[in-house]
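for the writeup, i need someone to sanity check this before i put it in the appendix. the sequnce is what the collaborator sent (i think, or maybe the updated version? ugh). structure was predicted straight from it, no edits. if anything looks off just tell me and ill rerun, i have time this weekend
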Amino acid sequence: LDELLARLGDDDTVTVTTFGDRARVVLPETPAGERMRIAAAVATIQTGGSTNAAEGLNLAYQLAAESAKPGRESRVLLATDGATLSGDGAAPILERIAADRARGITLLVVGCGGQQYQSDALEALAARGDGQHFYAGSNAEARTLFGERLVPERLAVLARDAKVQVTWNPQRVTHARLIGFEQRRLDARDFRDDRVDAGEISHDSQALALFEVILAEDGSGPLGNAAVRYRDTRLDAVQELMCPLPGSLVHAR
């Protein structure tokens, strides 16, 4: 967190909360220019108690909502050793996360931990908050993550509700199966329905889609088309881009 703090601008603000048995505010909203005060507050954090993640997130979102303003990006960063939301308190905060994303409050989940780390659950949590999930397996990885990737200029949201759709040419492809992305798949009819929530894209966002395909015997022509649709945050307008998938992408052994 010290690595991240060093890269914040003077116009940024920071609020710090923790959760054990109960959630509490460690530092109220503070200008990032007061780095020594923020660093001192972070240094007081210690482990202890149970893992009341639902109450912790609810408090963080409450504070983020209070400071949210038009034209200002608000982000909740959950640093966890693998805790997930469960029990009676989970449903309300999950609903709040989904509702607050409409106000531009996104969720960034950064985790560390061993064999009990529940990456699938935390990735799903980040997706609900229109955010991203990262894992740091060592101090060196954490320094790289906060010092190079999770810096403000690379976290700025460029596109909202971004969707990708691949349309296959049946004359060339007889079968296609997307591997993975179970948490983020949409129906084909949702691609041009701009009411459907999808992913947010920042400067540092990357995605890789892996397809299993079966080619038609003696088929020719292009494989199909790939299209991307998103709302450009700079223009506040929906854009759609299409890229052909030429047959030359596939080479016979």
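Residues 83 and 148 are 25 Å apart (CA to CA). The mean pLDDT is 85.
thx in advance!!
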